[in-house]
Every structure is written in structure tokens, then in C-alpha cells.
User: Which sequence fits this backbone?
């Protein structure tokens, strides 16, 4: 499941929360029936323990999250069941299925626990978008078959039976049922009314009436939503001690603003700081840049790098805007042109970046990137010979190291040199880039990747496409038996140097 399957069904991403699980190790057939039950494509009747759940029918009349939690937990306690309608071969009968209009049902505990985790993830994504999780309704549950896996069951007397697993991909999409939400700021105490006479009428506190009957968890959620709501148009936003006016583009929340000063990559003893120092030690001759402000203009973030006007990264659903003229960087490349304009020949930039991503096991609105570049002046034969000698020394060192490099890439029509570059000079720059990155990966992964120092580290290069480099490549390392993508790299497009006005010839870059 490489994309969200139901993406085209909903045109309001700001009012939709999505979550998914890939290669979930539970039965596809059981998960399909669980998803059908909470989506509401099958009829769910009122029972004694679900007096607040209405009778539902129709392909988009799903339960809200509170009802789904209550229903699934009741199934775990065997107070209700999951009706089986499609994959019902061999499924036993139970009286609990009668209220669902069928006679066959089960209590698939493993599938229910997985879907509960995914629903919790969707609720967290909703809160990140300043939506109240209690107003969410499950609009779409997509369950797809994943690649089957084959395992073994070991029996007595040395016998081995085949055991086939049938995992699945699951995706849940929930949307708010009420589009106009009201956020109450509970940080200030309610106004006090002072009586001037015994007969004076005291007006009712409307805010207090709205909070009446709410549980402690609901009050906490309302406070959280009030904090995460973007400022209203016309209000000022304070970021890093600077005050900015807001407009229709403003979508940054206070939660994101509060994360800017943390600078985890500069915090002593933090894993990100440890990783940063190891990377910088692999490039001792490079200038380390790691304290630039994340505030940039859309021109720096997009225009200077050649992003087209209709690029999806410019949209309000993908990037955080302070206002139409200022935003939080979405990548470290936003500073690339400026660094080249300062005529830094070799540099390494590490910083936090911000994107409006859905929160899951591998995505978060704030993460860190490493970017580096080196420029080459190859205008004389002596400088070309120096680069040839440097490449030869690095290649000899890698050959004697415990590393296997799989590089069958070729420069051709699909991944060509730039027309502004001399092919031989570009090949020298590209070879220097590969040697530096292979040495970096050897420094980072040699011991932990193999576990045993006697096993060689395996690295492979794959052709790729990036709009700001050419030729372009991705690099993977075999880590704990799986190929792990580490970085993207290539020779930076010549127009970047032209925009910066840097007096150099060819440049190579890495980014991740």
C-alpha cells in the first residue's frame, strides 16, 4: 500500500484524519470483516450495551471513534461479535450475530487489537490538525491483501509442517461530522461578577455551561485543541522573539512554534547530537553549519531551487506558513543558494525541518536533515590532476576496507550529465562524491550493520531522479538483513550556482 487508497474520495484534507498499517501480521479475512463492521457497510443494530449507537446502513455511515472503541472492546470481552458475511466458510454460528442480521460470527482478538491501534493513530493525527477526535466518523476502511509469508511449524520426531501467513494492509480514514468547530480557550479564568446590590441579576457564564457534563479527558482534549489551533487572521505570531503579522496563509500552530527552540541536534547527549558529531567527523575539511534559523521566505524554500509554481509542496496542507511572505523551511536546501553566495567551498548543513505530515511510525511534523556540498574549480590541468590523485587515494582505502559496494549505475539518457559540464570533469566530481559517501556509510554502519566485524558491510547505489541534481542517485545499506535507504545525492544543477553568483565550476551534494 504505497498510497492512501481512498485519497480521491475526500476533497477536504484539513477535515480528514488518516492512518494505516502495512504488512499487519493478522489474518486478512478476519481484518476485512472487522473493518466492514466498524465502517458501517453492514447493518449494526442497537443492543443493551450500545444504547447510544444508532442503526447504521450504507457504505459511508460509519461509527464515530467513541462508538468504535466501545464496540470493539465489547467484542474483546465476548459481549458482542464481529459478523462474518463474505469470508464465512468454516465460521461457527453464534446467537450474538443475530442482531447484525446474520448467523455467523467470531471474536478475532488479534485483528481487533491492530485496528484499535490504527484508530488511536487516526485520533492523534486528527488532534495534530486541531480536530476534535470525538466528532470524527469512520468514513472508509480499506483492507488489502499483503504479500504472503511462509513459515514453519516444528513438530515431534523432526517433522516440519508448512505454515502460511496471510498478512494485510489496513487504512482508516475518518472525517469530522460537524465542519464548524468552536475552540474554547481555557487558559484564562472565567470573568468574575461583582454584586453591587442584593437584587442585582447575575448573568450566566456561557463558557461554564458549555463545559458542563464534560469528562476530565474531554476537558483536556479541548485545552489541547485550543493550543493547537492556528491563530486567527489579524493576530500576531511570535517566533524566536520576532513578531509577525498573520494573514490567510497562516497555518502554523503554537505546538509547532514551541518545538523550534528545542534544537535537539545541538542538545548534549541526545542521539541526534551524537549522530551529528559522527557525520561531521567524517568530513573534517568541511565547514559545519548547524544553527541557522528555520524562518525562510517562500523564494528561498522553493523559487531559488527551481520548484514550479504548482508544486504540491507549496500548498497550505504540506508546509507551515507564518504568513504569505514567511514560512518554516521544509528542507535544508532552502539555505543552499545563500551558502554558495557566501563562497563556502565545502560545507555540511544539519538542521530541523518542518512539514505537515501525518503522524505514524516513520513520519512527524518536525524532523532533521543533513545536507552537504562541495564545489570544484577544474579550470587548470593541475587542479584536475589533484582531484584524480585524491580519488585514487580514497578508492584504495575503500578497497582495503571491509565493505562490498554494489554500483552498476551508468550515466546515460535516463540519468545524464548536465550539458553545461564537461563529461570527464563531471565523472571525476561524481567519483569523488561516491568515495566520500561510501566512507561515511562505512564509518556509521560498519560494526552495527553486520553485528560481526568479520562480515563485510554491503552498500548499493541506485539511479534516481531529483529536480535539483543530475546525475542523481540513492544509496542503500544492508542493515539487519534488509536494504535500508540512507540518502539521496548527485551533481547539483548548474542554475543553482548561477543564482548564487558563486565563482566555482561544478558542485556535488548529498541530502537526507
Assistant:
Amino acid at each position: 500500500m504505497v498510497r492512501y487508497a481512498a485519497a480521491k474520495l475526500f476533497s477536504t484534507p484539513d477535515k480528514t484524519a488518516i492512518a494505516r498499517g502495512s504488512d499487519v501480521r493478522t489474518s486478512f479475512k478476519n481484518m476485512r470483516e472487522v473493518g466492514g463492521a466498524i465502517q458501517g457497510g453492514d447493518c449494526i443494530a442497537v443492543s443493551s450495551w450500545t444504547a447510544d449507537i444508532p442503526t447504521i446502513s450504507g457504505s459511508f455511515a460509519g461509527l464515530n471513534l467513541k462508538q468504535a472503541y466501545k464496540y470493539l472492546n465489547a467484542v474483546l470481552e465476548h459481549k458482542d461479535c464481529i459478523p462474518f458475511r463474505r469470508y464465512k466458510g468454516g465460521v461457527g454460528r453464534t446467537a450474538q450475530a443475530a442482531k447484525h442480521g446474520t448467523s455467523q460470527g467470531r471474536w478475532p482478538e488479534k485483528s481487533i487489537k491492530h485496528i484499535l491501534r490504527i484508530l488511536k493513530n487516526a485520533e492523534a493525527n486528527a488532534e495534530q490538525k486541531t480536530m476534535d477526535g470525538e466528532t470524527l466518523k469512520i468514513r472508509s476502511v480499506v483492507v488489502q491483501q499483503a504479500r504472503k509469508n511462509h513459515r514453519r511449524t516444528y513438530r515431534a520426531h523432526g517433522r516440519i509442517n508448512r505454515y502460511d501467513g496471510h498478512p494485510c494492509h489496513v487504512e482508516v480514514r475518518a472525517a469530522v461530522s460537524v465542519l464548524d468547530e468552536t475552540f474554547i480557550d481555557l487558559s484564562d479564568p472565567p470573568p468574575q461578577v461583582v454584586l453591587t446590590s442584593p437584587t442585582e441579576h447575575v448573568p450566566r457564564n456561557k463558557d461554564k455551561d458549555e463545559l458542563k457534563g464534560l469528562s476530565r479527558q474531554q476537558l483536556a482534549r479541548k485545552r489541547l485543541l485550543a493550543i493547537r489551533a492556528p491563530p486567527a487572521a489579524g493576530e500576531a505570531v511570535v517566533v524566536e522573539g520576532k513578531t509577525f503579522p498573520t494573514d490567510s496563509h497562516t497555518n502554523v500552530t503554537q505546538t509547532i512554534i514551541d518545538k523550534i527552540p528545542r534544537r535537539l541536534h545541538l542538545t548534549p547527549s541526545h542521539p541526534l547530537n551524537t549522530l551529528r558529531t559522527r557525520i561531521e567527523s567524517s568530513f573534517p575539511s568541511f565547514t559545519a553549519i548547524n544553527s541557522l534559523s528555520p524562518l525562510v521566505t517562500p523564494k528561498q524554500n522553493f523559487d531559488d531551487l527551481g520548484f514550479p509554481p504548482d508544486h504540491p509542496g507549496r500548498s497550505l496542507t504540506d508546509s507551515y506558513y507564518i504568513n504569505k511572505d514567511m514560512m518554516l523551511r521544509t528542507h535544508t536546501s532552502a539555505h543552499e543558494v545563500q551558502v554558495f553566495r557566501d563562497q563556502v567551498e565545502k560545507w555540511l548543513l544539519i538542521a530541523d525541518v518542518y512539514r505537515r505530515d501525518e503522524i505514524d511510525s516513520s513520519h512527524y511534523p518536525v524532523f532533521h536533515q543533513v545536507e552537504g556540498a562541495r564545489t570544484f574549480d577544474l579550470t587548470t590541468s593541475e587542479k584536475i590532476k589533484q582531484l584524480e590523485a585524491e580519488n585514487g587515494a580514497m578508492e584504495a582505502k575503500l578497497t582495503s576496507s571491509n565493505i562490498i559496494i554494489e554500483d552498476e549505475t551508468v550515466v546515460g539518457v535516463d540519468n545524464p550529465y548536465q550539458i553545461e559540464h564537461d563529461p570527464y570533469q563531471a565523472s571525476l566530481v561524481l567519483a569523488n562524491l561516491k568515495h566520500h559517501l561510501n566512507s561515511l556509510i562505512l564509518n556509521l554502519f560498519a560494526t552495527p550493520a553486520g553485528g560481526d566485524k568479520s562480515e563485510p558491510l554491503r552498500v548499493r547505489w541506485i539511479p534516481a531522479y531529483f529536480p535539483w541534481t543530475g546525475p542523481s542517485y540513492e544509496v542503500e545499506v544492508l542493515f539487519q538483513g534488509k536494504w535500508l535507504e540512507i540518502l539521496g545525492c548527485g551533481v547539483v544543477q548548474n542554475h543553482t550556482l548561477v543564482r548564487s553568483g558563486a565563482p566555482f565550476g561544478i558542485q556535488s551534494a548529498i541530502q537526507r
The radius of gyration is 29 Å. The chain has twelve helices and 20 strands.
